[in-house]
Design a protein that fits this description.
two-stranded antiparallel ribbon, alpha+beta
């Protein structure tokens, strides 16, 4: 890995850690999902949580990796999708987790510098309506552990992959 890629990664982790540990009180935010391109999701991410009456019958998620693209025309960095995956449920635990409120914040949060790679999650109901909901977050600006556990518990079938 080149030195500039490592430097960008370290700067990114430092920024994320600093933003995660900003002071404040009240409730943690809902996390708007990454707007990065995903070949199987056409809908735009929402700043709203999953509607209470939404009943998904399928889900698509894209996983990402940190990417640094350099060319003479325009060096850039960010996230690039790696896999697109599909699941047909059951979604009861995921829906319950997505309806949880964001974490309460009491005093100064203590956040580790753990980096959580973004995931784009789109849910579709029986009528064909698709939503990309905001995820309930922790005070450290990561999805609630219940959301991550529910996503990990689903069976996913890879539908697209890129190197």
């Amino acid at each position: 890995m080149s030195m500039s890629v490592r430097r960008i990664g370290l700067v990114f982790v430092a920024i994320v850690a600093g933003a995660a540990c900003s002071s404040g009180s009240g409730r943690a935010p809902y996390l708007t999902q990454s707007a990065g391109s995903c070949p199987t999701v056409a809908e735009r991410p929402s700043a709203d949580p999953l509607p209470t009456d939404f009943r998904p019958v399928s889900a698509v998620r894209c996983t990402f990796r940190l990417a640094v693209h350099q060319s003479a025309a325009s060096p850039s960095s960010g996230f690039a999708w790696v896999t697109a995956q599909r699941s047909t449920g059951p979604f009861d635990d995921l829906v319950r987790a997505l309806h949880l409120p964001p974490q309460e914040q009491d005093g100064e949060p203590v956040c580790t510098a753990d980096f959580v790679m973004p995931v784009l999650l789109a849910l579709t109901d029986a009528a064909g309506n698709t939503v990309v909901p905001a995820l309930p977050g922790t005070v450290c600006r990561t999805p609630l552990p219940e959301v991550r556990a529910a996503l990990d518990a689903l069976t996913w079938l890879e539908t697209a992959h890129r190197e």
